[in-house]
Amino acid sequence: MNHKSKYSQLIKSEAKRLGFLSCGISRAQFLEEEAPRLERYLKNNMHGEMRYMENHFDKRLDPTKLVEDSKSVISLLLNYYPEEHQIDHTYKISKYAYGTDYHFVIKDKLKSLLNFIQEEIGEVHGRAFTDSAPVLDKAWAAKSGLGWVGKHTLLLTQQAGSFHFVAELIIDLELEYDLPTTDHCGTCTKCIDACPTQAITEPYVVDGSKCISYFTIELKDKIPSEFKGKFDDWMFGCDICQDVCPWNRFSKAHSEPLFNPHPDLLSMTKKDWEDITEDVFKDLFTKSPVKRTKFEGLKRNINFIKEG
């Protein structure tokens, strides 16, 4: 076994030990196929008010501009599918936001993995990324064989569907590289048909500025009135395209205690949400991604749904 292969195996078994669902490795190089797609996405204003997406165009496509002399992108998936869900007929929160903000959880695991690489292999430089820098996570995960990008533009795996976070380490060490997998969406259009705001404008293209997640999290202004009655009770994020996806029947509950929800969260009724106070909001969402929308933002979303 050559050293590249040995190091790759070492890294993958440590990733598993740290609780990652899977780990794949690809060569750090310019993402040629993604460049025109990203350009079109921005040109057509599909990012809405997420202006940060216009920044660092070249860095998004070239990992060597983020980590000098980088050789490998190590992609990792972390399952967040919950064992229990919110009660029926209530205002809904995207499942990824039930527990502690994933940025904290994954960053710690990534740091541990980088430390492990440095201790076991030697002087390796790199950076950890989880949705927090201009990195095209899903493109790298697909490139390294962890799954394929589905028609809803999320990364899908045959073993566990799409309820997982994607993260990566970009390092200056040459490793053994994995090959991409094939697309298994076939002729299925369930995600496209189910989206109430028609955000999936064509297979593999999502207009972010029409997505319920965008309206309930990213948009700071008033939600456009033409979307009234189309939110299907989603007040933070939206899982519709994932919930209807046939591959998600293979989702298994995560085993990360930090992703478990506050004990009161799952049983809250519509009335409870409508009467929520700032103190209850703070208690429920101390370290949760829901803090991003702030108390006022959540109230705005609830009122918008109620009025619909």
| Unreliable segments of 5+ consecutive residues | none
Counted by DSSP, the helix tally is 11
Mean pLDDT: 93
Oligomer: single chain
By helix and strand content, what is the structural category? alpha+beta
Number of domains: 1
What's the story with the biggest beta sheet? 4 strands, antiparallel
- The 3D shape can be described as globular
Counted beta strands: 10
H and E string:
HEHHEEHEHEEEHEEHEHHHH
First-residue to last-residue Cα separation: 62 Å
Strand order of the largest sheet: 1-2-7-4
Briefly, what is this?
The protein is of the alpha+beta class. It contains eleven helices and ten strands.
What is the secondary structure topology, with strand pairs?
Blueprint: H1 3-17, E1 22-27, H2 34-43, H3 57-61, E2 72-79, E3 92-93, H4 102-121, E4 126-129, H5 137-143, E5 148-149, E6 155-156, E7 164-171, H6 190-194, E8 200-202, E9 205-206, H7 212-218, E10 234-236, H8 240-243, H9 270-274, H10 278-284, H11 294-307
Parallel strand pairs: 3-10
Antiparallel strand pairs: 1-2, 2-7, 4-7, 5-6, 8-9
Describe the structure.
- This protein is 32% helix and 13% strand.
- The N and C termini lie far apart (62 Å).
- It contains eleven helices and ten strands.
- The strands form four sheets. A four-stranded antiparallel sheet has the order 1-2-7-4, with helices on both faces. Strands 3-10 form a two-stranded parallel sheet.
- The model has no long low-confidence stretch (mean pLDDT 93).
- It has one domain (1-308).
- It is an alpha+beta fold and 308 residues long.
- The radius of gyration is 20 Å and the shape is globular.
- Helix 1 (3-17) packs antiparallel against helix 4 (102-121).
- TRNA binds at residue 220.
